[in-house]
Amino acid sequence: MISRLGRAVFSVVALAAVPLAHAADYPQKPVTLVVPQPPGGAADAVARPFAQALAARLGQPVVVENRAGANGNIAAAYVAQRPADGYTIFYGSISTLAVNPHLYKSPGFDPFKDFQPITLTNQTPNVLVVGAQTPYKSVADVVKAAKAAPGQLAFGSAGNGNTMHLTGLQFEASTGTQLVHVPYKGGPAALTDVMGGQIPMMFHNLSAVLPVAQAGKIRILAVADEKRSPLAPDVPTMAEAGAPGTVQIAWSGMLVRSGTPAPIVERLHKEMAAILATPEFRKPQESQGSEILSSTPQEFEARLKTDSQRMAEVIKAGNVHID
User: Fold this and answer.
1) Which of 2, 23, 245, 294 is exposed most, by the fewest CB atoms within 10 A?
2) How far, in Å, CA of 36 to CA of 66, rounded?
3) How open is the CA angle 202-287-289, to the nearest 5 degrees?
4) Of 264, 301, 262, 322, whose CA–CA distance to 120 is shortest?
């Protein structure tokens, strides 16, 4: 006969084996990819082809679900409450995961306790752009104008506390200037006003401004990266242009709920890494200004920790508040 202790041990082992059994059969139903931006935006341009490729590799539909609002907090909080079973994937970004926890008193999630990173997917640097009608041809021109009229030269962004705003704060600190921040409800609205002459400049993602720059509607003066972009090789880095320390790279990546069984995380990482290595996925994204990445879960977590600390310092120094 099996003793009471033996039955207890058997029960514990049996229960522990249940998630592993489910992981071996994963996936048995459609998977949801939650995107924290509205349909049709820059995030969708990456998420939807990625979801199609992932569905083909998993043998189950991968449904994109857009949950916009609160700078991504709504979507992140939603995923943080979903079961840790690998059926809900979050397309997270530096803004939602590394910036928002330092801006909001109650964002509704903890990026380190609630999420298991799988892989980084893509990144694009922020750039300083000016309207084609402005006299500014270089960062030096902007700095000269800003110092001649402290607190008068305006720059736009997608809203208070986003990475475009924080790039502006870094720029001020590195150049010793005082600018006026004009927050908009989204990057497209700010970019429209830069093109129309309502504001002279803004900091924006390279992938978002490259087409209009090529059309001659704006000028890109510098890249907030440590290296030049192959898509704009003639544009200097901020350090080369006289604004050292202004580095802001908008990255995104795939995550699931913390506690998701390791075999599922490993399966997802394997399939996602394979997608990110294919020319079919890479080339369209690279042509639009995105640099395709691929990382281990550990590398993703390390970058999140580093950028979270860095963004906390910028936010504190700039005295930025949301609520």
Assistant:
1) 2
2) 6
3) 25
4) 301
Rounded to whole angstroms, the Cα distance separating 273 from 293 reads 9
Q: Identity (one letter) of the amino acid at 191?
A: L
- Per DSSP, the residues of 130-152 read EETTSS--SHHHHHHHHHHSTTT
CA angle, corner 233, sides to 314 and 165, nearest 5?
20
Beta strands in the chain (DSSP E): 31-35, 62-66, 88-93, 115-131, 154-157, 180-183, 201-205, 218-223, 249-257, 291-292
Partner residues linked to 201 by β-bridges:
130, 155
Cα torsion 31, 34, 40, 43: sign: negative
Measured from the Cβ of residue 264, the count of other Cβ atoms closer than 10 Å reads 23
pLDDT value of position 18: 46
Q: Which of 151, 158, 147, 103 is nearest to 243 (CA)?
A: 147
Q: Kindly list the structural domains of the chain, giving each domain's residue range(s) and its CATH number in brackets, ordered by start.
A: 4-20+27-123+250-318 (3.40.190.150), 125-241 (3.40.190.10)
Q: If phi over 0 gives left and psi between -120 and 50 gives alpha, with beta otherwise, what is residue 262?
A: alpha
Question: Mind giving me the DSSP string for 69-109?
Answer: -GGGHHHHHHHHTS-SSSSEEEEEEHIIIIIHHHH-S--S-
pTM summary value = 0.85
Length of the chain, in residues: 323
Distance, CA of 131 to CA of 202 (rounded, Å): 9
List Cβ neighbours of 55 (8 Å cut-off, separation of 6 or more).
31, 61, 62
Which DSSP symbol is given to 289? T
Distance between CA atoms of residues 13 and 268, nearest Å = 25
How far separated are the first and last CA of the chain, in Å rounded?
63
**Radius of gyration of the chain from Cα atoms?**
22
Mean pLDDT by 10 residues, the chain (323 residues): 54 49 83 92 90 98 93 95 98 95 94 98 96 97 97 93 93 96 89 96 92 94 94 95 94 98 98 97 89 96 96 90 73
With contact defined as beta carbons under 8 Å apart, do 206 and 127 qualify? yes
